[in-house]
Amino acid sequence: MAEFVVDCPRCGAIRSTHDVYSSVVVGMEYGWKQYLEVSGICRACGKMSINIVSRLNVDKQLNGWFGAVGTMNTLSSYNGSLNDLVEFRRNLTLRDRNQAAPPDHVPKEIETVIREANACLASECWNAAAAMYRLALDMATKSLLPSEGEPSAKVRRSLGLRIQWLFDEQKLPLDLKGLADCLQQDGNDGAHDGTIVKDDADDLHDFCFELMRRLYKEPRRVELAEARRAARRQG
Known about the structure:
By secondary structure, this protein is α+β, with helices and mostly antiparallel strands. 41% of the residues lie in helices and 18% in strands. Helix 1 (108-122) packs antiparallel against helix 6, helix 2 crosses helix 4 (159-168) and helix 5 packs across helix 6.
């Protein structure tokens, strides 16, 4: 049976030996670097955890211990320490649940925030997810305000008031106004007091996703279609 020396996420033992029971290849880079999920039982506490690991080097003599994506249990039959073959990346957690990706063409800085919000949502960290979705909405809507004049400083500072003003000025698609009620339902008090629940976080996700899609993805798709049309006419 293979062994793997790694910190145990269950009992906290440092560099504990784990008996490896199964493995599966879940990804690959560069045509050789496999990523695997490896399950093992800690000898210190007797509890199982799943580690995400990556192949250490390109040595072709080791190919038989790996395989294509979906290949199972090659590493569990290795007679020795997996530390010779793979590098620990992290433990499998709730954040590895399927997550909705941000819409295409969202600015990179906002995309990063949305991905963090989605990871929090997948991990059932509702307050953290809500805070990050609100941050993404805050970043996106500030760019829609005129540089001077209306709205007032109070409206500019408040996400909820700012979005209401943008709807009133028809700077946001009016058919999204119903989804924007989530900002009133969770409210600043809920966000600050840590009283956000799953439904609140899900509502914020839906509004954030649809708003980003309308602000960034759809206009960019039109731009690309127009560019293709122009290229065809030039041809």
